[in-house]
């Protein structure tokens, strides 16, 4: 199965030590434009503290049933961070147009006293892929 994807790649060379990186920006998937969602929140309180997080989902096609991948690192609290990653639920229509997704899970285990945090939330409305 071949799925046509369009987009562009941008490269950058930010260091003098010959490191070079690229970012891939997908603009359509199988003929449908793609979009992303902002997501943010605060984790549960575990080991006497919580963490904040904020990022963007991975792109997904617009106008078809879909989910989004997401990944981010929490704020630095009590000398450590946690990784948050997963897949959203299906799109939920908004009355005025657009949609959002629910997400939930547990962070990675980290900290002087190893622990994880629960998190859950709702993405913002869809926006064109950045």
From TrEMBL:
Pfam families documented for this protein: YmaF
InterPro entries xref list: YmaF
Domain of life: Bacteria
Protein name: YmaF-like protein
Organism the protein comes from: Paenibacillus prosopidis
């Amino acid at each position: 199965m071949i799925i046509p994807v369009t987009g562009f790649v941008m490269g950058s060379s930010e260091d003098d030590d010959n490191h070079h990186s690229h970012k891939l920006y997908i603009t359509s998937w199988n003929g449908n434009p793609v979009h992303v969602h902002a997501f943010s929140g605060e984790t549960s309180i575990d080991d006497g503290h919580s963490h904040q997080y904020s990022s963007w989902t991975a792109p997904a096609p617009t106008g078809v049933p879909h989910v989004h991948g997401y990944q981010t690192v929490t704020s630095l609290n009590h000398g450590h961070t946690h990784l948050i990653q997963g897949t959203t639920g299906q799109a939920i229509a908004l009355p005025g147009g657009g949609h959002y997704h629910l997400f939930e899970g547990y962070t990675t285990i980290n900290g002087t006293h190893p622990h994880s945090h629960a998190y859950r939330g709702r993405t913002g409305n869809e926006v064109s892929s950045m």
